[in-house]
Specification:
Length: 269
């Protein structure tokens, strides 16, 4: 059990916000010279790419956390984990939306979460192209820069635009039933290439919600904290070893969430 008082947790929250901005600015410097980056593919999935920028920004973030909180664990998309079982775990994606990043689109971000004793308590998503820092900490509300945010007030999917995402880690059969139900009920959707950023948009009320049949923890956890602290509802992402295996992500306001949950093929906890 981690023995951390509230001041210690808030210190980490403030540090996470500042670190996300500084890491995001470093990523943006690479973005401006992206035509000179070395690009690799992860495994056999040609859509799953990684650049020198991803690796160098993650190295920067990891080293800063190690300097400030050497007792904490770290889980990064590019470097893996130094101690996934640590009571305090920083979970980081230096660039969520790498394909968008490499192709000159603005829909990418840096995402970061802090998990304490198995509970996500801090979520931060930084969009350096628009200088937008979405941040939340348990009991402190959810914010966009210095303004509080809340979910969209839609009571049906026809009341706004739904964010959706998918990947080749799941089959079409896992995703298409939700999309079909959404359209059948008069809804519309957007997929921008960054699940972490769309989750943050949902917490801020720009989208009516977000659904993806499988997300890795470095992309899924920040939006869950943001939505919960904004006053919305989410599934229990950490159920069934979510940190190790990933899980679906569903989030929306408390009125709309039960409707969306009915359309998800796999049961959500």
């Amino acid at each position: 059990m981690a023995i951390l008082d509230n001041d210690s947790l808030l210190a980490r929250y403030r540090f996470a916000c500042a670190l996300a901005e500084s890491g995001g600015k470093r990523a943006h410097e690479f973005y401006l010279r992206r035509d000179r980056l070395q690009i690799d593919h992860k495994g056999t999935d040609l859509q799953d790419v990684v650049s020198m920028a991803d690796r160098e920004v993650e190295t920067f973030i990891k080293s800063r956390i190690a300097e400030a909180f050497p007792e904490d664990g770290f889980l990064g998309e590019e470097s893996g984990t130094s101690d996934a079982n640590n009571p305090v775990l920083w979970v980081v994606d230096p660039i969520d939306g790498t394909s968008c990043f490499l192709n000159g689109l603005h829909t990418w971000c840096l995402s970061l979460a802090i998990v304490v004793d198995g509970e996500p308590v801090t979520g931060v998503v930084y969009d350096p192209n628009h200088h937008e820092l979405f941040h939340a900490h348990k009991g402190e509300g959810a914010w966009l820069n210095d303004r509080p945010i809340q979910p969209h007030s839609a009571s049906t999917v026809a009341g706004g635009v739904m964010g959706v995402g998918t990947s080749h880690r799941v089959s079409c059969a896992d995703f298409l039933p939700f999309l079909d139900a959404l359209l059948q009920h008069g809804g519309m959707f957007i997929r921008n290439g960054s699940g972490a950023l769309m989750s943050a948009w949902a917490a801020a009320g720009r989208l009516i919600g977000y659904y993806e049949p499988h997300m890795n923890p470095w992309d899924g956890l920040p939006g869950l904290v943001l939505m919960r602290e904004a006053g919305g509802a989410t599934n229990d992402y950490l159920a069934d070893e979510g940190i190790a295996r990933g899980n679906p992500v569903l989030l929306a306001n408390k009125t709309l969430y039960p409707q969306l949950q009915q359309w998800v093929k796999q049961p959500l906890r």
